[in-house]
Amino acid sequence: MAELPDVRFLTVAEVAELMRVSKMTVYRLVHSGELPAVRFGRSYRVPDSAVTEALQRPIADVG
């Protein structure tokens, strides 16, 4: 049997807490494709590596 990679998945609520944003913002990021996620039933799970990468991205200038 093939080994599965050691990937940790976070809930939308956990991602929102880590990123210090609302759950709705996390859903927007997932639906826009900016934050990769896997759907399990009716909920989403986000790889912790994707959250780390998103937090390290530079913030776009507004205006």
Automatic annotation (TrEMBL):
Residue ranges constituting the Helix-turn-helix domain according to the UniProt record: 9-57
Single GO MF descriptor: DNA binding
InterPro entries: DNA-bd_dom_put_sf, HTH_17, SinI_DNA-bd
Pfam families recorded: HTH_17 (PF12728)
Name the UniProt record assigns to this protein: Helix-turn-helix domain protein
